[in-house]
Give the backbone structure.
Amino acid sequence: MPELPEVETIVRQLRRQIIDRTIASIRVFWPRTIEGNKTEFRRRLCGLTVAGVWRRGKYIGVEGEDGTFFTVHLRMTGKLVGALDTADRRHLRLRFTFTDGTKLHFVDARKFGRLRLWPCRGESCPGLGPEPLCPETVRRVLKHLRTNRPVKSVLLDQAILAGIGNIYADEALFLAGIHPLTQAAVLNAGQQELLSRSVPRILKLAIGRRGTTLRNYRTLADQSGGNQEHLNVYGRTGAPCFTCGTPIERIRINGRSSHFCPKCQRSGVGRQ
Ligand SMILES: [Zn+2]
């Protein structure tokens, strides 16, 4: 599933490709791709000139010159591509055609991805926590947590911090040397500080590499990301830790797999 770095990569590419372009028509191949009123969606978007493209958590937001705002949530397998190849053709769910003849395709094999119109940008995506790209924000959030949930579950909670998914939660915890089962509320000051730095660092490094491609994620130009070559623990079950050589372990926490080094990430309670 695309997380913050993958969505940010797509947003940056979309800015170059669709800003100042005007939507001429929308063709919908799978109606449930649009959340809410489909007629209204079409009416507001046809003729719209794109003024800005934004990211909020894992959402892509597109704003028109008149303030019309809609989001694209890629979920499991959704992707936006300029050119459509043969394999994607059967999974095409929606197509924008711009007045200059260029096209933008929403392709989604599993059909969980959604497009949604909002009253305005300020009212979009309610309930999301702050962006985790600066240490001060993450530090403030961690400091005020009063939960006995495992820190891994807390990092995945979009209402606490927006945009982090399974890959980057595991990688950030490894970098901070924190066991994923550690209760969030018992992280000591030193651990809070390490995690406050490691979360933004992991995300920014991945943005610089255009995200992580393990299965489905593709950039707008239909290319893979580059961060998969730099993972320390995610997807490396049984392989030796790059730091200490201990085999990486995988456990399930609230139904999600968590990868960690049992030696570099000590203790499940957080008081070492
Ligand atoms: Zn290790």
The chain has a mean pLDDT of 94. Residues 135-260 form a domain with the Helicase, Ruva Protein; domain 3 fold (CATH 1.10.8.50). The two ends are 33 Å apart (CA to CA). The longest helix spans residues 189-208.
